[in-house]
Amino acid sequence: MKKVITFGEILLRLSTERHLRFSQAESFKATYGGGEFNVAVSLVNYGMNAEYVTKIPNNELGISALKEMRKLNVGCEHVLFGGDRLGIYFLETGTSTRASNVIYDRENSSMANLHTGEIDWKEVLTGATWFHWSGITPALSQNAADACLEAIKVAHEMGLTISTDLNYRAKLWNYGKEPKDIMPAMLKYSHVILGDIDTAYFMLGLDKVDPDYSKGDNLTALYDTIFKLCPDMKYAATTLRYSVSASHQRIGGVMYDGTTIFNAAVQEVTPVVDRVGSGDAFMGGLIYGLNEEPLDKQRALNFAVAACCLKHTISGDYNLVTKPEIEKLLSGDFSGKVSR
C-alpha cells in the first residue's frame, strides 16, 4: 500500500458554539485540527496509509492531541515531543452574511521552535511514496521554515512525490519575512500545488494577476509561468469557491497538468455547517485521486471537489466522510436521503 507522510502543526481548536460571537461565548468547544493533519485524516478514511509528523509538548494537551491522532488511525510513529506549548486557534463560526473569524495563539509553540536536525527525515520517509506540506508551516517562524525545507529536500532526494497546499494565512506571517522570501526555494521541489493562481504568483514574488477561471486559454498561460518556476511540477490545482454567504457556498475546481485544463462542475453547498478544513478536504481527495490506478485525472479532480463539498456538512476541522459517500455524490446523488 502506498504511504503518505504529512508534516505540520496540530492545533487545539477552541470554537464558539451555535454561531455565537466571541463576546457572547461563555464556553468553547475543544477539538483538534490543522491543515496537514486534516489531509492525513482524509487519506486514512479512504483506505490509504497516512502518517503525520509534528512536534508537540510533553504535557496533557500534547498527549491529548496524540490520542486524537491514534483515535483517527493516523500514523504517529515519528511525532516529536518538545517545547512548551501546543498551538491554539479560536474560531467564531459565521452564518448568513456574517463571516467566520479566526484568532491564532501559536507564538512560541512547539512547532514554531522546531529546528533542523531534530527529525531524522531519511528514517521517517523510508517506505513512503508521497510527502505533503503546506504554506502554514513556513509562516510560523524561520526555524519552522528551515525545518520544512530540510524535509522537502530529503523527500526530493529520496524520489517521493511532493505536494503543497499554498494555504496563505496573512495573520501568521509576522516574523519579518514575506512568502516571496521563503516559499520559492521550497515550491521549486513540488510536483503538485493546490492554490489560487494569484496566491501562487504572490508567493513566488511575481506581479499580481486576476485570473478568470472560466477562460481556459488564459489559465494555461498563467499556470505555465508557475510550471517554469517549479520545474518538478506535474499538476497545479485550484479550488473554485464562490461565496454566496457564510451559509451558502458554490464549490468547483480546476486542474492543469502542463498540457490540459480539467474542470469540475460547480456544486451548490447550503446550508454550510463548517467551512474550516474544506480546502484540506479538497487536498486529501486530490492526493487520493492522483494515487488511484489506473490514473484518471478528471476523476481525481471530481473526487477532490466532492470531498470538499461534503466537508462543509461536517463540524470540526477534518473530513469524516468515507469513499462510498463520495462515490455516491460523484454518481449524481445529492438527495441526502436517509440510508436505511
UniProtKB/TrEMBL annotation:
Matching InterPro entries: Carb_kinase_PfkB-like, PfkB_dom, Ribokinase-like
Chain ranges of the Carbohydrate kinase PfkB domain: 1-209, 269-316
Keyword vocabulary terms for this entry: Kinase, Transferase
GO molecular function, one term: kinase activity
CDD domains: KdgK (cd01166)
Signal peptide start and end residues: none
Family the UniProt entry places it in: Belongs to the carbohydrate kinase PfkB family.
PANTHER family, per the entry: 2-DEHYDRO-3-DEOXYGLUCONOKINASE_2-DEHYDRO-3-DEOXYGALACTONOKINASE, SUGAR KINASE
Name of this protein: Sugar kinase
Lineage: Bacteria, Pseudomonadati, Bacteroidota, Flavobacteriia, Flavobacteriales
